[in-house]
Amino acid sequence: MMETKRILLRPWRESDAETLFKYASDPDVGPRAGWPPHKSVEDSLEIIRTVFNDATNTWAIELKETGEAIGAMGYGSSCDCDLPAREGEPLIGYWMAKPYWNQGICTEALLLMLDHIRQTTDIKSLISGHFVDNPASGRVMEKCDFVPTGETCIDDTTAPTSTHRIS
């Protein structure tokens, strides 16, 4: 578990399913991160059991004040998208519940994860991308010293994605 004054990065729990559904069913949240809104608590539980089941590389962003999981942060092998990843270069990803947008929490969580990666791995560079119609995500990356690559790609949803890299 990693923490700052406001947040914890901790493994997802099955007991987070209702809270995950509350935030991940919002049609403004998932599509900005490349996934469809959740349709049921059962869908959210399945995501916790499958997508979020890697406790070493995927964490819930828990707001200490409420104890709720309000987003996710993680890294891993590059997805099936067209991001121009280097050989072995992990992809980072994150999302934040809409009520917590524009409060610096996502930047805080990404900085915390990057510090963890530097202290516990020998990873030399990371890549990420954001849909061009979600510039706030790009600003989070830039605040965390990711540099725009100048490349735009089309992912599997045919939405243009701007890529960023940190070395």
Q: What's the number of helices?
A: 5
For the largest sheet, list the strands in their spatial order: 1-2-3-4-5
- Tell me the strand percentage band: 25-35%
Number of strands: 8
Tell me about the largest β-sheet: 5 strands, antiparallel
Topology as a string of helices (H) and strands (E): EEHHHEEEHEHEE
Low-pLDDT stretches: none
What's the end-to-end separation, in Å?
A: 24 Å
Instruction: Please give the share of residues in helix.
Output: 25-40%
Structural class: alpha+beta
How would you sum up this structure, described in words?
With 167 residues, the protein is of the alpha+beta class. 28% of the residues lie in helices and 29% in strands. It has five helices and eight strands, in the order E-E-H-H-H-E-E-E-H-E-H-E-E. The strands form two sheets. A five-stranded antiparallel sheet has the order 1-2-3-4-5, with helices on both faces. A hairpin with a 4-residue loop joins strand 3 (58-63) and strand 4. The longest helix is centred in the C-terminal third of the chain and has 16 residues, at 105-120. 34% of the residues are buried.
Condensed summary:
The protein is about 30% helix and about 30% strand.
What tags apply to this protein structure?
5-stranded antiparallel β-sheet; 167 residues; single chain; alpha+beta
Task: Describe how the helices and strands are arranged.
Layout: E1 2-3, E2 7-10, H1 17-24, H2 30-33, H3 41-49, E3 58-63, E4 68-76, E5 91-96, H4 105-120, E6 126-131, H5 135-143, E7 147-154, E8 160-166
Antiparallel strand pairs: 1-2, 2-3, 3-4, 4-5, 6-8, 7-8
